[in-house]
Amino acid sequence: MCGIIGYSGEQNAPEVLLKGLARLEYRGYDSAGIAVLKGEVIKIIKKQGKLEILKEEIRLRPLEGTTGIGHTRWATHGEPSDRNAHPHNDHREDVAIAHNGIIENYKQLKKELEESGHIFKSETDSEVIAHLIAKEYKGDLRLAVNEAAKQLKGSFAIAVMHQNEPDRIIGIRKDSPLVVGLGKHENFIASDIPAVLEYTKEIIYLENNEVVDIKKGKCAVYNEEGVPIEKIATTIEWNIAQAEKTGYKHFMLKEIFEQPEVLKQTFKKRIKNNKEVVFEELRISEDVFKETRDITIVACGTAYHAGLTGRYMLEKYARLSVGVDTSSEFRYRDPLITKNTLVIVISQSGETADTLAALREAKKKGAKVLAICNVLGSTMAREADGVIYTHAGPEIAVASTKAYSAQLGILYLFTHYLARVRGEAGNCPADFIEKLTKLPELAARMLKHYRKNENKIKEYAAKFHQYYLASDNKSCFLYLGRNINYPNALEGALKLKEISYISAEGYPAGEMKHGPIAVIDENTWVVCIAVKSDTYEKMLSNIQEIKARGGIIVAIVSEKDLTLKGKEADYVIAIPETDEIFSPILVTIPLQLLAYHVASEFGYDIDKPRNLAKSVTVE
Ligand code: F6R
């Protein structure tokens, strides 16, 4: 939800800001803008629409300066427009701000400011911040920001400049992410690391209410009381290529193809001597897991689907009862959590507002919270009692792919670990680790076939596109799965909806007769996950039932299984054979590719689907 960046150094700020914004665009893309300070003048250019529009405007009206702030927006208050785009300034144009978050008390503040003569130009909540800082300014921007922040309710990460203070940028955060990048003769602040990765790998994570004061050769961090504090920088392992498309047409496709390597790294770092799972970074002791009575997994979207999949393996092998909840429900449900409940929050970004609130709620109830996160040093990673990082590298496409399979990978490892620690290792098959570590190779083989065009997913997507147009846009998708692949049915439908805007629903196949069967006709494409499993025969019966009602079957099958090919299934996608329990990671890849190619047929902006933002840092 909105990305912000600030730069003070020796380079041309607009260039640095625009490059940074391009790497933050996944956070919002309905408008963008930059403000640059030169001499004692702040100049702002901001435009509705994607970053390319802003770039073009700046090409026509170049800005110069070595200090600046930038913003890419996902609208909450006020429609996407030039006027509502950030940066915002006060009416005297002394202060410029870029804000990510929501100011809940902006109406009250705006009223008071207007009464004291401030003139507002936009419909946003954010504009009050600029006016408030201008009002509090008495010669030191940091103090003014501190004073203003005390009056703000809600969530914010803010970058601020004042025209009287050349080279200086102040950043502050509360419940929205903000990192500091330390360079040589230059410093940065940004909502996320990829924005500054080209220039530095030395990152400081700011805690809530901390204030950072940067100039080109200076960086100081202060606590809420204004006392300077020592912060240790972390050296990031990510490299800039991970934040580039490197020849792929879209980040989503690149990230799908990265999955074998991501899984390999996920397993390699945690499996010792090919037999034991060890989490070195885990901050929760084994004793806590020995005392655990039940598990609750909480997450949103794709991460929630990973959690649903986790339930099957944890219950089967670690023999603990597992509940799974979406964060937005959990946080208001007054759930039954005890100090012996292990709450697992799963989040790629580690910043999702509802999951963060759920984490805090769980801690308040006395539970131990384990976070499975991708972004190092993210708020969840810091606030949870323990963290396991997915180490999938930066995920730029809005639709999550590699983070999902990495989350599944971690859940397998954690299942094995938990079973061992709790004396339940005997429940896990002896070849659990061996089969698990084969998955990256199997995924790589599948993707290689696909690359050689031995896999027909692209063709099927083109067929669907034709049907869609011929059916007067009536064609829709239903995804069915059973057992541990039921969550994949939800995930396949979510992926398709997100990037191709086609109506799609995921269902447990056994529930089909309890409702969804009513929608099946010749316009319904039904993706049936029919890989080798204990419920395979039941899925075959479902397929017969769909066929009898004219539905079009896309079957995901195990590679040697020819049962459906050329018979009930209209389209068949084969995946390498593995035990049912390990199949979700392999099943999800063709589902991702199907969504990708359908969206591609429609010519949509796959990495930046409409209305979505990658990191939902507001409720
Ligand atoms: C789907 C997707 C979203 C996220 C969800 C949670 O492709 O990306 O559904 O999974 O917004 O985000 P994180 O994992 O960052 O908490």
Q: Overview of this structure, please?
A:
α4 crosses α5. The longest helix is centred in the middle third of the chain and has 20 residues, at 402-421. This protein is an alpha/beta fold and 619 residues long. It starts with a strand and ends in an 18-residue tail after the last helix. The radius of gyration is 25 Å and the shape is globular. Helices cover 35% and strands 23% of the residues. The model has no long low-confidence stretch (mean pLDDT 95). β5 (88-89) and β6 (95-103) form a beta hairpin. Bound molecules: fructose -6-phosphate. Fructose -6-phosphate is lined by residues 300-303, 347-349, 352, 355, 399-400, 494, 498, 615-616.
How would the global form be characterised?
A: globular
Tell me which ligands are bound. fructose -6-phosphate
Q: List unreliable stretches of 5+ residues.
A: none
Rg from C-alpha positions? 25 Å
Keywords:
single chain; 619 residues; alpha/beta; eight-stranded antiparallel β-sheet; seven-stranded antiparallel β-sheet; 18 helices; 27 strands; 35% helix; binds fructose -6-phosphate
